[in-house]
Write a structure and sequence with these properties.
It is a single chain. The chain has three domains: 34-155; 165-203 and 222-288, no CATH class; 292-320, no CATH class. Helices cover 61% and strands 1% of the residues. It contains 14 helices and two strands; from the N terminus they run H-H-H-H-H-H-H-H-H-E-E-H-H-H-H-H. The protein has helices spanning 10-22, 34-66, 81-92, 97-101, 112-118, 125-155, 160-166, 174-184, 194-201, 224-237, 244-256, 258-279, 290-294, 296-309; strands at residues 209-210, 213-214. Strands 1-2 form a two-stranded antiparallel ribbon. A hairpin with a 2-residue loop joins strand 1 and strand 2. It is extended, with a radius of gyration of 27 Å.
Length: 320
């Protein structure tokens, strides 16, 4: 669609785009039906609220560090039952480490000596006021997220079968499956192939070649909501044992690094989701040895070359 260089004005760009549209040379954008668009609004708003909650929790951590309260170094979750009781006691004016430590529950009671040391700080009324405001805001955000999740569960009801199929993919939890349906819809005929879908989502290598030279193949800009959800799902999937996603991550990570390997797994998960929705089937795990079985000759050739570089003469004989 780019205009001829040296003739760039907004009016001329409009004329040029109108002429292209007049001759049918512009492809339409992917616009999902109204129910999917409504679901997309809900899931995106919930994601923004989750990010806001994370920022508020980080502000709370920073405020406690400023007050000399090292609760996060002892408790795994300072907003859990025990941590919340201690924070509310601090807001009410209780600063005695002995009294605060006795509010611990469950496994945290095994760390009482370290907890008393962590709760010995310089907690002033200024900190109490800010902590009370942060806790109130966190409660409001948690309540809103719960309300949105309930609404999403109602709206996504007609797509319960597709949701269940996507939930069978390793690393894809229910919330991620909800995002996939909200961003992609359930009709995969909108995309000619899984490659078109990966390109639209911005989860495939870029194509940048000039004068016979291949330049940076970084991914293009795509659907950032879908990309974020699949990246989080990929980080969960690579921790699954005996999984094809884990095997793909390990193969690519050796020579491309962690980030590119995770993105490659996200791409594989998107392709899997495409075929699950298009064929109306469930995910079938291929196993950790899938790539070795698929590329058996390549694996054998590389092993022979490795031994030959070490000075060995290799003769292969197939077992009976």
């Amino acid at each position: 669609m780019k205009q001829v260089p040296g003739r760039k004005t907004d009016v001329q760009d409009c004329v040029w785009i109108a002429q292209l549209l007049e001759h049918g040379l512009l492809r339409g954008s992917f616009v999902p039906p109204a129910p999917i668009r409504e679901l997309r609004d809900l899931t995106r708003y919930r994601k923004v609220l989750i990010q806001d909650r994370t920022r508020e929790a980080n502000r709370l951590h920073k405020l406690l560090e400023d007050a000399g309260i090292k609760l996060a170094s002892v408790a795994t979750d300072i907003l859990g039952v025990s941590g919340r009781a201690m924070l509310e006691a601090l807001v009410r004016g209780t600063t005695d480490p002995e009294v605060l430590a006795e509010l611990a529950r469950g496994k945290l009671r095994a760390k009482l000596p370290a907890l008393r040391q962590a709760l010995r700080g310089r907690f002033r009324p200024h900190h109490a006021f800010l902590v009370s405001q942060l806790l109130a805001h966190l409660d409001y955000v948690d309540e809103t997220i719960t309300t949105l999740s309930e609404r999403i569960e109602e709206v996504i009801g007609p797509f319960a079968d597709e949701l269940a199929r996507l939930d069978t993919i390793h690393g894809v939890a229910r919330r991620t499956a909800e995002v996939l349906i909200a961003e992609l819809g359930v009709d995969m005929s909108q995309f000619p192939s899984d490659r078109h879908l990966a390109s639209w989502a911005g989860l495939c290598p870029g194509n940048n070649e000039s004068a016979g030279k291949h330049k940076s193949g970084k991914t293009r800009r795509g659907n950032r909501w879908l990309r974020a959800a699949l990246t989080e799902a990929a980080l969960a999937a690579i921790r699954t044992s005996n999984s094809a996603f884990t095997a793909r991550y390990r193969r690519i990570m050796r020579h491309r690094g962690h980030k590119k390997a995770v993105l490659a797994v996200a791409h594989a998960m998107l392709v899997t989701a495409y075929h699950v929705l298009a064929r109306q089937t469930t995910y079938q795990e291929l196993g950790a040895d899938y790539f070795d079985r698929r590329h058996g000759e390549r694996v054998t050739r590389r092993a022979v070359q490795l031994l030959e570089r070490q000075g060995y003469r290799v003769t292969l004989e197939r077992a009976a």
